[in-house]
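Support reply, case 0932

Customer input (verbatim):
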Amino acid sequence: MTRYEALTELLDERYSCRQFLPKQVSREVLEQLLSAARRTPSWSNTQSWQIIVTEGDATRKFSEALVEHVASGVPQPDFPFPANYNALHRARRRECGGALYESIGVVKSDTEATTRQFIRNYELFDAPHAAIITTDADLGVYGAVDCGLYLQTFLLAAQSLGLAAIAQAALAAYSPFLHEWFDIPDTRKVVAGISFGYPDETHPINGFRTSRAPLDETVRFVSD
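Our regenerated output:
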């Protein structure tokens, strides 16, 4: 297998896991994962990211408190979420959401079931670990971009170690709660969360995959 083939295999195999096994990831494997992720390139090598990783009872306590907060709290992300989606982006979102709910037999009109699945985000899909990624506020958008690169490296490193993960903007939606719970200073901004661990490969929700746009929809070559 060439290095390109090894990379594309990881990219093809990786997916957003939405049901995990209760098995903890050993500290040795966690450190392997985080050691790989820190090789991420960044703006002027500023390495703006800092990572909070939960394990053991800390994950359960965080999840339970977050679910309770979400029930009455208002989303307040440190970075504004998109104000609008154009027709193309809406279509891609709907395709993804439709496939997700279809995989577990939920119809869009079933408000109770869709709400329940939404809450699963804050239950971390039963993952034994959560990671919160923050950036230095003074670095602005470039610090956030660097954290996005870190996130991708983290996801691929997890896949290479036999783990599964899901990047979650849903966690960043309640940034004030995260700041308080994890004692994150105001000089840092929450970019995203990640739930991760060992996947429950028998659960139907882990069976669906999202599509990718063809190159001619996203790439423009300039030759002259």
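We compared this against your earlier run and they match. Two observations from our side: The longest helix spans residues 140-160. The CA atoms of residues 2 and 8 lie 10 Å apart. Please reopen the case if you see a mismatch on your end.
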